[in-house]
Amino acid sequence: MPTLVLLALVGFAAQLVDGSLGMAYGVTSTTLLLAIGTNPAAASATVHLAEIGTTLASGASHWRFGNVDWKVVARVGFPGAVGAFLGATFLSWLSTEAAGPIMSVVLLALGIYILSRFTFRGVSTKHLGKPLRRRFLTPLGLVAGFVDATGGGGWGPVGTPALLSSGRMEPRKVVGSIDTSEFLVAVAASLGFLVGLGAAGIDFAMAGAILVGGVLAAPIAAYIVRIVPPRLLGSAVGGLIVFTNVRTLLRSDYIEASSSVLVTAYILIAIIWAAAIAYSVRAWRAETREQQLIDAVHAEHAEHALGSAPNGDPEPEQDQLVGDRT
After folding, report:
1. Residue 195 vs residues 52, 55, 88, 312: alpha-carbon distances, Å
2. Does residue 324 belong to any structural domain of this protein?
3. Is residue 295 part of a domain?
4. Where is this region: Disordered (predicted)?
5. Per-residue pLDDT tens over the stretch 265-323
6. Within-domain flag for 286
């Protein structure tokens, strides 16, 4: 029972992150399942089964808040489902000894990408409003779906930054569309694992606990995405994923690092992690100040234009001139 309660809390926290950042639900949940000794394929299968419910709840919540572009959902989601099914059957075919390190390496790479991507680049909207082409979304969906199933997560870490970097969608719509399309990926991956592992290979109790926590967090996350800076959240979550998977790799049978190496690695990662968050905070504050200045200039120009309009109120100088003439 304590384990199931812990998994429910993890599902809640992971969905808060995923629903507001557009990534890291599967990566975070799978990382924890691996840390407690779950079979890699079973861990990914359990998380994807839970994601069927959490992504459905998350998608409905994002739709309610107007965060979903349904064209993008269809164009990236269906190829993603194909990639996820192929990835699930591939992971089921691998032995546990081979799959464990492979999954940890994939998760570590995704964590490094999330950490560096949001710390140093933030979010771009330079081409906001321009349509996303199918020839870009289809291969993106295939690759992201395959990585998601084989790594126990990856749909968001691959898909969300790719759409954000295009600068053609509002960040909140990127997050909402990726989260909604992930429902198709979760269903396809679950079918692939059922084919490869059978129902006996999936822990339904763990999946249920993660599902309950995620469903409870979904509407909160859909609201948070409108108010929490993605840059800060990305740096925090990326560092957590890196820390956890480095620990898993160093303690694996392939490496078996000594305690001194473990402590040194933990301290180094903690320093980098803290520096990344501090850098993100400073960058976010600078961006906020710059945007406030831009908004103030636009507001001043709007007031000036209104005052100079033929049907608008005369400006103070004009009032004084009229008074002098009379």
Report:
1. 17, 22, 9, 71
2. no
3. yes
4. 305-326
5. 889 999 998 999 899 888 888 888 887 888 788 777 777 776 665 555 544 444 444 44
6. yes
